[in-house]
Hints:
- By secondary structure, this protein is mainly β.
- The chain has two domains: 11-102, no CATH class; 126-201, Sandwich (Immunoglobulin-like), CATH 2.60.40.10.
- The protein is built from no helices and 15 strands.
- The chain has strands spanning 11-15, 20-25, 37-44, 49-56, 69-72, 78-81, 87-91, 97-102, 126-133, 136-142, 151-157, 164-170, 175-181, 186-192, 198-201.
- Strand 9 and strand 10 (136-142) form a beta hairpin.
- The termini are far apart.
Amino acid sequence: MGAGTGTAWQHNVRWQPDHTLTVFDDGAAPKEHSQSRVIRERIDWAQRTVTLVSRDVHTPALLAGSQGNDQVLANGNSFVGWGEEPYFTEFGPTGQILFDAHLPAPGQSYRAYEFPWSATPAAPPAIAVQSTSVGSVTVYASWNGATGVSGWRILDGGSPTGLVPVATAARTGFETAIPLPSTAGYFAVQALSPTGQVLGTSPTTHP
Length: 207
């Protein structure tokens, strides 16, 4: 066994397409290492040796007493769940941390995985309207949980049944603020896909 290849209480040992092994090495319970780590090792069957290819650790250090995994992504990055320590981290190919988050304590994660996610909430988009000055308003549009929204269309009219499109705006975050002049009294917003398809329409509101 080469330097750094020894494991303790390891989890999620996986063969990779390049014939290496990835291992989540807890190293705890009882403590054998100063921190948990994700390692990649190569076995030379002819020489009967094991070599450490790479090693990823969290900053600050985490020591997981159980569980944990390493998901090797298609782009070569690693997505790591830290098991008993409720963190999950994406590492780049040279070990740099690209993403890091954690669940509220005392949460734990037996395994953590990264996959494409698409969702359209059952509830409609939300709207709020604030009068900012005479003849001007700011429309606030959001849709909690929706992943496909790239823009908003604002509908305006003198009655709830007489709304017409008056403006569009790109989505700028969880809630998009859209200032516009208005002499009408009723508003709604439509969530738009990148191709302009209407994904959902808010209730009509009056500031």
